[in-house]
Amino acid sequence: MAIDALPKAELHLHLEGSIRPDTAIKLAARHGVTLKPEEVAARYNFSNFNGFLEMFKWVTSFLRTPDDYALITRQLCEELVRQNVVYAELTISAGVILRRTQNLEATVKAIREVTQSVPFVRLRTAFILDAARQFGPDPAKEVAVWAGKLQPLGVVAFGMGGDELAYPTINFRPAFDLARHDGLHIVCHAGEIGGPDSVREAIELLGAERIGHGIAVMRDAAFAETLATRRVVLEICPTSNLCTGALARQVEKADASLRDHPLPDFIKRGIAVTLSTDDPGMFHTDLLTEYSNVASLGVSTPHLVKLMEQSFHAAFLPPDEKRKYLVDFRAAADSAGLL
Ligand SMILES: [Zn+2]
User: Fold this and answer.
1) Contact 75, 23 (CB under 8 A)
2) CATH number assigned to the domain comprising residue 40
3) pTM of the complete model beyond 0.85
4) How far, in Å, from the CA of 14 to the mean position of ligand 1?
5) Is 60 contained in some domain?
6) Most buried one in 226, 286, 298, 331, CB count within 10 A?
7) Residues whose beta carbons lie less than 5 angstroms from ion ligand 1
8) Above 90 in pLDDT, residue 61?
């Protein structure tokens, strides 16, 4: 597609979710565990959200040292450069790292060292530290404290993912208040497997500026209108929603397909949406595939270009840098005859 060559930004991207089956084998081997490809393939073959979380837990159990994180960061950055991604916000599952009593600061340093290295000079990265909701409010608070401390290493936001149905949202308010007070941006997974109220609570109780997924909004037209007016961003990851069964759950249809995805409708309603892969290594996708999938749903090229541009608008970049990325993007789209 013509848009493949345009500079891109990706905002909803879990570093650990970029681990491909072959990398899982490599990581396990580093720690003396021999995995057979068919065993890994079976693990990567999940059909619902809990299955996905189990698999995520299993794969990340082979991330034991900062150098393991460096390895997966290098692979992810190579992938991003290949797709002409010039800005990426990488979500790091800090909640998992702390729960395993690993050194979070050394890990973020190792990740940063790779992102700052020569081969990736054209790729700008920032980090989001993510709490796992199912671990509860106190561990989430611990992640928020660390996110504040690690801002000099490129951490720009605090977020929460994991099991959306665990614990009432209000319980996490102290963690999010603390992060905001420390000057961090706020993101939160909501409306992925939960309902529209989950999205509403993430915005109103936690102060989320961007919502991870938010596809449940399709079930509440009035709320969709409010969102469009308030310009809260929904980070949409269609392949993820298919793979985890989140879309099937929202549309109450076991054989839900891409055609059932609300993204084209969200665009029509004027909701600020961005496109991402979520966990590309686990869902066998990449950003180019996601844009091509959206095009296959009948979204026109001008709308695709707008969708791409939206990722730069919604980025947690300082205003002057954001302006520069937007100018460069428009210049590239213009010279490709896409404006
Ligand atoms: Zn996610």
Assistant:
1) yes
2) 3.20.20.140
3) yes
4) 6
5) yes
6) 286
7) 212, 278
8) yes
Sheet holding 233-236, edge to edge: 8-14, 85-92, 124-132, 155-161, 185-190, 210-213, 233-236, 273-275
pLDDT at 75 (0 to 100): 97
pLDDT at 97: 97
Give the pLDDT score at 185: 98
Catalytic residue (one of 10, 142, 164, 192): 192
How many domains is the chain partitioned into structurally? 1
Beta-carbon contacts of 37 under 8 Å, excluding residues fewer than 6 positions away, are 21, 25
- Bridge partner residues of 14 (DSSP): 91
Distance 159 CA to ligand 1 centre (A): 10
What is the 67 CA–ligand 1 centroid distance (Å)? 23
Mean pLDDT along residues 29-48: 93
> Does residue 339 belong to any structural domain of this protein?
no
> Has 192 been annotated as catalytic?
yes
Query: How many angstroms is it from 325 CA to the middle of ligand 1?
Result: 24
> What does the pLDDT read at residue 13?
98
Distance 37 CA to ligand 1 centre (A): 25
For residue 333, is it within any domain? no
**pLDDT tens digit string along 306-332?**
999 999 999 999 999 999 999 999 999
pLDDT of residue 123: 98
Ligand 1 centroid, distance to 12 Cα (angstroms)? 6
Q: Is 280 left (phi over 0), alpha (psi -120 to 50) or beta?
A: alpha
Report which of 55, 26, 29, 61 is spatially closest to residue 42, judged by C-alpha positions.
Answer: 55
Say yes or no to pLDDT of 21 above 90: yes
Q: Would residue 337 count as lying in a domain?
A: no
Range of the domain at 50: 2-328
